[in-house]
Amino acid sequence: MFRRRFRLVFSLLFATAIMFSHFASLSARSDQDSAFSAAPPRTLIRNASLMLTMDPNLGDGLLGQLENADILLEGDTIVAVGHNLNGEGARVIDATGKIVMPGFVDTHNHLWQSLIRGCAHDESLDEWLFQCVVPFRAASLPVSEQDAYNGVRYSTLDLIGTGVTTVVEVSHAFTPEFVRGSVRALTDSGLRFAYSYTGNSQPATIQHIRAVKEEFIDPNPLASLQVGSHPVPANFSNGNLQAMVALAKEFDVPLNVHLLEGASQRRDEPLKLLEQSGAFPDVQVIGNHGIHITDQEIADYLVKYDIRLTHNPLSNMRLASGFMRLHELHAAGVKVGLGLDGGSNDTSDFFNTMRIAVGIQRGRFMTADVYPSVPEVLRMATLGGAELLDMDDEIGSLTPGKKADLIIINPRAINFGRAMDLVAQLVFNGQPQNVEWVFVNGRALLADGKYVGVNPDKVIDAVEESMIKVKRELEPFLK
Amino acid sequence: MFRRRFRLVFSLLFATAIMFSHFASLSARSDQDSAFSAAPPRTLIRNASLMLTMDPNLGDGLLGQLENADILLEGDTIVAVGHNLNGEGARVIDATGKIVMPGFVDTHNHLWQSLIRGCAHDESLDEWLFQCVVPFRAASLPVSEQDAYNGVRYSTLDLIGTGVTTVVEVSHAFTPEFVRGSVRALTDSGLRFAYSYTGNSQPATIQHIRAVKEEFIDPNPLASLQVGSHPVPANFSNGNLQAMVALAKEFDVPLNVHLLEGASQRRDEPLKLLEQSGAFPDVQVIGNHGIHITDQEIADYLVKYDIRLTHNPLSNMRLASGFMRLHELHAAGVKVGLGLDGGSNDTSDFFNTMRIAVGIQRGRFMTADVYPSVPEVLRMATLGGAELLDMDDEIGSLTPGKKADLIIINPRAINFGRAMDLVAQLVFNGQPQNVEWVFVNGRALLADGKYVGVNPDKVIDAVEESMIKVKRELEPFLK
Questions:
Q1: Interface test mutation site (partner A, options B1, B99, B117, B327, max chain A beta carbons within 10 A)
Q2: Beta strands A435-440; A406-409: pairing state
Q3: Interchain proximity B420–A471, CB inside 8 Å
């Protein structure tokens, strides 16, 4: 029953070109000071009880651990890591008793989906899509620019609150207005982001992607572009997939796709479609979820073409997609990053995402001797994500010369236990409420537990108005 | 290698009678006002946007939902639930915009294990036990009364912070001093608790259990007793198991055991040992974890003798024990409650425990059409836990006449999304930081986000001293 209905509407809507009614000017600027224009001061973070540099050349072990260490930021850059650094003229933050580490790299999200948190809570992936996402593909049910802005802005605060400093926003790009609202909110957030524009073969769409790139992405040192498609037969038949492959080549940016998230996607043979679209070997493909990939496909496609995967364990559990075979994928040499997929797992808690990424593999194999270990998942959540995005020359570790994207965590809290093993506690006990400072590109987005330059109450008020509207619009589709 | 070493030491230590060196007087009282002596005032909690009464006679659906509802507490009791209640003379708490529901019932914990948070973080159950728990069975490595107090007190604050109002403390009861420290901390916490005393056949132990019952449990309306054992062959050979079965019968209290948590426990045939010890059908057995139970055992033992199970998903993932077959157990009619098992999953987050209990079954079956659904897990976390403990005439729902154990949650937060489905958000998005008020027996333990009658900083200082000591003592055992 469902399957028939789903396939019908899916073919009609999801795989059809988006009908852009008009292309409003992109000249509207963020209504805040541009997040990337401020010149941040020198900042010395001193005496961190534990510093996880993620650089084995700087400290002990896989995580490059240091104790009682300082880090000096100048402008947008880390200039020194060590002991007793000279902080003359710098703003000083005392990190005694605290943990300093790179910010989390959230390799997969749909930030606008905060607007549909809680939707179809006891349904599996396909039915959830049908009830809560697909309706917005219809021109009669748009998400306005303001709604998109409100949803994305709200989600970015949630990301900052859990210590994320870089996010890959896989945008459904329903309309040009939706895109503008989304990108403006990301820009205002001050986060480093990759915006994946899910496009199609319509000339108007291609033109809009170029315009977004020129106006919003290229001028922003914190932003980068990806292009997205959905590797299903309809998108191959109508040339949408090929168009995005061509654009990825032209721009030399990754192609971001959902890849075998649900078992029902096996019938689409998405890897063959990508191959037939000319994606391999030239295009860097980032595949999200990758739960139902066969061993043969790991060898024939993922390893051969260096396809990278995002792992979104909380979303996969919420939507009943299954357990990713992370241990096996890692053993085969596939690069995998962690993602919140905030819209579909509802929540944004990177500590929990790490915890469950560890736990699922231990549960599957009934031994703790599997990937990822506690240090491995911390690396995966930071430098691993940066590697997946080919941004590891810029972010992911506290190596001098890299951008100053880092967080300070206060483990003096009821939910921690500092004495035995603080590294393990980050993974097993960390909660967003323990994150005190978040720096992106040298600029504090969270300072001593408070959001900087934004009033969260106003963001909540705004998003609730949009949520109520969205709920009303979705009601005819909800079971 | 490990297995040999483990079995040797396990037989020597774990299955051996605890050698009590002396029995100090039990006369020392809590160093705070007794938590249960205060007579709380009338309290009216008014206009909760969402009230989950868990009583279908009071409101809609499985969770007995009400909107814009009031609840009136008098002394230790809920006296009324409804709209526009008369709160004359009552302290009024405005719950506009907030969620009111029964507190969580944590059916399984070892609160002292906050002292070993982070221990052996990349090891499976047996090795973790060997390195982090078994050493304390040796008389040469005691946990002092003060250390036990500090660890348990710290954990109780963590429980209160996540909205737990009743906890089953499965105590290792290493020494009489340890027991006294544990029970004093529980008493001081103001939580409702069952103290499961893990005992043996030594007359001195039996005598001490009687003394604890008389001095600490019986006079405290918030406390109840369970007795515990570990159903392994050695405990059968030396009569420890039989002694605890006999005591459970005499006191008419549950026998609390760890039941097939790890796959290696299959060889012990614990259900046969329980049967041979005379536990069935007279003793109410509560089995913790129950991951490696066969279908045959479900029919022959669990259903036949109404054995109840605690489900501790985060602990089971951390220690690589496996995934409980919760869906199948529920379908067979077995009563299962949720537990934090805080020591071995390290963390205390009941929202996350619910979320993962849902997610594991969805991951296993790759459909959301399995037990528990979102409403079912909320019921399981509250009334289900009370039923497991045969305390559902007293707690677990907001039914007038029951004890006033309830929590107030503020969903106006960056991590929530209030508009679409607030019930789902509790499970998918809730975090401990959203819990604002916790009432046990009519008394506020958390008020507007602040702990009542206790300084958490002092508790942290105290526990860290104990943690450092414990770490030093464990170091020879750590790999």
A1: B117
A2: antiparallel
A3: yes
